[in-house]
Design a protein that fits this description.
The chain is built from 16 helices and 20 strands. By secondary structure, it is an alpha/beta fold. The strands form five sheets. Strands 11-14-15-10-9-16-17 form a seven-stranded parallel beta sheet, with helices on both faces. It is globular. It starts with a helix and ends in a 6-residue tail after the last strand. The chain binds nicotinamide-adenine-dinucleotide (NAD). Nicotinamide-adenine-dinucleotide (NAD) binds next to α8 and α9.
Amino acid sequence: MVDEQRISRIVKDVLSNMDTSAAATPKRKQLGVFDTMEEALDAVGKAYAQFRKYNLAQREAIISQIRKLTHEEAETMAKLAVEDTKMGNVYHKILKHHLVADKTLGTEDLDTRAFSGDGGLTLIEMGPYGIIGAITPSTNPSCTVICNSICMLAGGNAVVFNPHPHAKRISAYAVDMVNRAVLAAGGPENIVATVANPTMETSNVMVNHPSVKMLVATGGPGVVKMLLSSGKKAIGAGAGNPPVIVDETADIKKAAKDIIDGCTFDNNLPCIAEKEVFALNAIADELIHHMLKNGAYLLNAAELRELEKVATQWVTNKKGNKVQVINKDCVGRSAKVILEKIGVTVGDDVRCILCETDFSHPFVQIELMMPILPVVRVATFDEAVEMAVKAEHGNRHSAHLHSKNVDHMTQYAKAIETTIFVKNAPSYAGIGFNAEGWTTFTIAGPTGEGITSPRSFTRIRRCVLSDALHII
Ligand code: NAD
């Protein structure tokens, strides 16, 4: 469990003494960071040839070092991630790094099943895939690199990353940190690698290289589709647009705080974060009242119209159709900064931009990744579920509910079919933050691995010994 008080103390210390970005950009050549994808793949191939001989204890020693350095360098990485991507919140990113270090599963996740009988002994074991090619997002850059590295190395694999170009500095930092941890634990050089300047071309080289046996995409629909059509074994962790329903049985005061806490975490960058609320008429006023007491600012109709123009834009897609999309300049920005763009000045206590809309409003329909929360009033729970399912767009990613009615929980869960379904907590409970269960930053809805862990990156193999080692 992350100790918030401890982290709060560390954050205060660090922010007051923190260096500029130079501190986070070492002068020496970063470990595992190459000029070309071919060089990165060549180096990873050599490292994997050695790593294949490592036993579970050696893998675990490496993972312990990665956890240690992640704790030690959490602040540096959080600061650099915000600086590099211009998105998110340093304090929340620090918490995310500690979460990754504490709650990503290691080799303990690898299960062996055994069958014994007159015919002998059969083992089912989880073996490595080999070299994995992973694409990582700008929204959780270093956390995804570190979480993927721990899981993939636990499974006995090597990994080459093609990170988001807008997060290349922080992603390179994380690859270097993982390599420093591996070397400190006596592991091989470059078991994790990347390129200094990731592009679509470097991504294509990685995807099509014969040494890469598995592909993992953590990102939006474009990258998931591209990897799933590669012809290789691929894991796709794609977009979400998580709805939250609040019914009349909920603890409304707690629901309001939980929703604002979840929605504003890292300025709404997490794919699991609350993106739109469906509130039963009976409790909607009370819910909004308590949201306003928890750092929300309620837009009037004119401000809502202005914000739509600022937070979204119209573009022509490849088919020649005009489509409304997010304005990337607002993604991951704080409520205060976004409100300034429409001429509204608020204090630092305002962390969420609240608005009342109808179901068809773009703020409900588009995955914004900004601390903007539309509330839609509904007459019945059935209507709320119907709208939530439509707003989730079949991503089957995450959905949330505030209710004490078990029948409502069951009805919503069955209808929405999401990988993550959180009841009566902020959305981040779904990745084990202040809740039970392990964490991941690669939530694979489309391909079904769900909350990925080391076993997601393994091949199931059968080892049969005939007529022996059966002692019954
Ligand atoms: P993105 O999809 O814009 O980019 C991800 C990476 O893919 C980048 O490196 C990008 O350059 C590359 N890319 C995009 N299209 C590509 C293509 N056709 N071929 C090759 N490479 C391509 O992601 P982002 O904006 O950083 O992240 C936000 C999106 O990712 C959101 O939709 C969010 O919900 C999703 N996300 C999902 C998870 C999850 O676990 N399911 C986790 C984090 C983010």
